[in-house]
Design a protein that fits this description.
The protein is an all-alpha fold and about 150 residues long. It has one domain: AhpD-like. Helices cover about 65% and strands about 0% of the residues. The protein contains eight helices and no strands. The longest helix has 24 residues. The chain is globular, with a radius of gyration of 15 Å. About 25% of the residues are buried.
């Protein structure tokens, strides 16, 4: 069984608090809580962060998200149960998360602009960036969720 290496909030409380403050800024924007959770789950799946996948899946369920849509995130491009707006956000999430694979394409950005203002796109970018930061902490430290 994998064991957590160390807990960043314990070992570097100040740095972790700053990340949490950035996370709070993302949460307080205009993006719906359900979409925020879909972003966090999907980015965490792409990054392989089991702790964040577990936590945000449970949070999404608690906020009324459907199990089918949570499970379907790994194949959202083939699934019919995401709106065009959600698809634009998931494509953006993928390209920001996997930025080393060619950046964010003009096509993806232009699709996002059909549904979101520049302020909202900025909010999405903060949400995606913050979960990616948390994912890097979770993957590096082998952070494990509690077994249900």
């Amino acid at each position: 069984m994998t064991k957590t290496r160390f807990l960043l909030p314990k070992e570097n409380k100040d740095a972790y608090q700053k990340i949490a403050e950035l996370d709070q800024i993302g949460k307080s924007g205009s993006i719906s809580e359900q979409l925020q959770e879909l972003i966090k789950i999907y980015a965490s799946q792409l990054n392989g962060c089991v702790f964040c996948i577990d936590m945000h899946s449970k949070d999404a369920l608690a906020k009324g998200e459907k199990m089918q849509r949570i499970i379907g995130l790994t194949a959202w491009e083939e699934a019919a149960f995401y709106t065009v707006q959600e698809r634009a956000v998931l494509a953006f999430t993928k390209e920001v998360t996997l930025i080393h694979q060619g950046g964010v394409s003009d096509q993806t950005y232009q699709e996002l602009q059909k549904y979101y203002s520049e302020k909202e796109i900025g909010e999405l970018l903060v949400l995606i960036g913050t979960i990616n930061f948390y994912n890097r902490i979770g993957v590096t430290t082998l952070l494990q969720p509690k077994v249900d």
